[in-house]
Structure formats: C-alpha cells, structure tokens
Fold:
Amino acid sequence: MRVFFAEVEGNNESVQEALKTMVSAMNRPTRVIQDQRSNGKTAVLLEQTEGDEVEAEEALDQEEFEFDAESTPSNTRKVRGTGKKIDRNAGLNLVPNLDFRPSGKQALREFVEEKNPKNDLEAVLAAAYYMQHQMDLTKIGPAHVMTAFKEVGRAIPVDLRQTLRNVKKSKMWLNFTDIEDFRTTTQGDNFVEHEMGKSE
Structure:
C-alpha cells in the first residue's frame, strides 16, 4: 500500500498537472528489493519501473523481510464470554436512609411480592415505580434500584446500568437522558397498575 501526501499551491492548471503526475506515479508498478546492510539492518527498496527508488530502512534484527499473509494479525473477534471478567456494577453503592417501609403505605417487599415481576426488566420497573410514586423520590438512579433489590432479596443484574437502558429502549417503561435521574413513563405506570401481578 502506498500513501501520498501532497500540498499544492497554484492556479487550476498547475493543480491539475500536479494531480496527473501523482496519479501516474501511483499507477507505476513496483517491486520489492532487499539489501542487507553492514549495520545488521535490512533496507527495503521499492524500485519503480522508471528507475526511481524510494528507500525505507527497517530495523528487523537481521531477520529476512517477508510479505507473509499468515504473519499479519487476524481481525477475528473474541467469542462472547471469553474476555476478561469485570464488575459492571463497580462504583455503585447502596443509598443510605431510604425508607422502604413508609408509614401508612405498603412496604416495598409486599409491593414487589404482589406485583410478582417475571424478570429483571419488570423488577426494575416495579422498584422505580414504588420509589417514584410511593416514596415520592425526585431523583432515582442505578444505586437506588440496587438498594431496592437488596431490600427485597432479589439478585442484582450483573450490569445494572445496561438493564436500565434495556428497560428504556425495549419496553419504553423508563425515560432519562441522565441514567442517574430516570422516571417511569406512562407506559411503565400503566403496566405496573393494570398488568403486573394479574393472573393469566
């Protein structure tokens, strides 16, 4: 692969001439010549058919320079699940002083048992609905949901932030531009109030 960089000044005719010259130079065939230097480095010469040579020195530790397709790194993707394991919930801490048993209202644990969420998406929605409508929290984020899951004894999703994005994108039950401040949508409220926990 050859890369040409050029900075050309002048009128239209001179610029056109320069472009023609570059195109003709790019179309000339080349062949690779190797030259072993006394310093132990291999010089690679790209000889053009008209006798012009461009020299590029490469320190190759006295190894022969080869164009070998097998030596080039492959662009194969890693199989899902074989990469390095990391904690996607790192940085999330339980929110202190959340009252999940507000006076005169149903406790969160009872509310979740009644709604009986079938999966993590529904459980996130139930927790968000409760904190927004029963606890009157004005700002709810991933750490609030994690704290609610701990309260009811539910396993926390391995990537809670991504689960919240999925609730927003695939179900449209949540709305946010900042994931640290989300609200339930009308669709989410309707699902909690009219469908969750109903016997099929």
